[in-house]
Amino acid sequence: MAYIKQSAVCWNQTNPPKFDFQFGGVIDNDNPIYEVTEELAYIGSKLGTIEIIVSADYSGNEISGPVNIEIQSDEVDEWAQFQHPNRDSKVFNLTPSDLFNYSGVPARVAALNLTQSDSPAATSGQFKIEVVRNEVELGNKKVTVVHTPWVHSTQLSDSTILAGENITAYVTVKNCGAPSKFNVVGLLYETTSTNSSTFVIGSEGWWPEKTWGDIRHRTDQKTDKIDNNTERIVPLSIPGDKFEAQHTYILETYAIKELPYLHPKKDWPNCWEVRDPPHYSTIVVLEP
To answer: Is 270 left (phi over 0), alpha (psi -120 to 50) or beta?
Structure first.
């Protein structure tokens, strides 16, 4: 992964130290921004960690002893002897959950308003990485965390169909964050004999499969890169042989963004953890 160096200085002396902050998985190292989703607040390091490197350039003799790297008074690394001629760069890692905790961004927020013509105001927060010696700040860098700056809506070609009839869901994805590719997913469930008691939220939350049973059909489509403040309509087709007469169905859709600091494996089973809020569409199937 390529890094770009950036310097921050905050010290009043003739020969001040200079610090380079390098952030993994960001588009602009001068303005580090990380995008998160609700589920990422709880997963720890399961999807990988974010590497941050802090380097120091200093050849004076006025600063000696330990120099700490801190986030909100938490020490994340240190130079035990800052004057050492072979001073190493310090490398530490943060998880997506750390981004939530340090920035104060809430784990759950309302979805963006797709109908607005300009970029909706997303929930965001900041935290500061500080280089400190004896409670005096030598340098710092601010990091911005933004909660799910994309959203989607779903429109069915028809919400009432005949048995055996094909149907298409047109999913509009609006990206209000950094340019990225998306994976749009549709999951079909049969809801004919749904027991309302299964809507109760348990200790592990509510899951569609616990309410509606196994997924009857899955369809997904990857997009090319969608720019900032740009929409893309993605068609998801469901064949008619998935529907039975006098049955009702729910189509769950969501949009997964390829966030550059995450490292999913091929056929990533938990990709839904970087989705926007799902949308549910009802399909009623009539006798032909």
So the answer is: alpha
